[in-house]
Amino acid sequence: MPNNEIKSNNNKLSNYTRKLEDLQNALIANNHIDGIYGDGKNLVNNEIFRIENDFADQLYMRRMYMPKDCLVVSAMHHTEHFWFLLKGKILVTTDGEEVEHVAPCFEKSIKGAKRLILSLEDSVFINVHKNPTNTKDMKKVEELLYSITLEEYLKKENKINKKSHGRNSNSRNNWRGYISSWWNSWWSYWW
Question: DSSP 3-state assignment of 191?
């Protein structure tokens, strides 16, 4: 496999993701400086970056308020989901590609993406996730849906893959998916 990429659960994690992780680590190391927030373990939720949580039948919604001129390194989500920009304007960089979003708008978030988000105006950003167990225990919701660091993401995804592709699985479909994934990875590496 080439040096600048790793693959997990059919999602390519790029060199950009690693560089963004380096930026995040530098910010965490300097979080004692006024205006830099984050501990690398939890989502930032303070008077500057307010987060509100809400629930409906089998759905979880997280609303984040982002003041103008703020920079956010996103968490890595373990599921595809939709996000909505209700107010404001943001510049989102994913894998080196910059896209400006002006409210109101929405996008599909791809599993495993790590983003750099710059708020160009005061903005309100919403993520909507499935919540099949209807839990309102935020520790459980957070554990299931996202990881703050690349290392945490890879550990969780490895556990998920072992559960769905383990030798004790009786499902032929799981093995077909595993073999197909292996073949696609091998093929893209050599060709």
Answer: coil
Considering its fold, how many domains does the chain have in total?
1
What would the pLDDT profile of 100-144 be if each residue is shown by its tens digit?
999 999 999 999 989 999 999 999 999 999 999 999 999 999 889
For residue 114, is it left (φ>0), alpha (ψ between -120 and 50) or beta? Answer: beta
**DSSP-H helix ranges across 31-171:** 138-145, 150-165
Indicate the DSSP class of residue 106.
E
Q: Collapse the DSSP code of 82 into the 3-class scheme (helix H, G, I; strand E, B; otherwise coil) and give the result.
A: strand
The residue among 152, 2, 3, 124 whose CA lies nearest residue 65 is: 124
Q: What's the domain range around 151?
A: 5-190
The CA-based dihedral angle spanning residues 146, 151, 20, 114, taken in that order and rounded to the nearest 10 degrees? -30
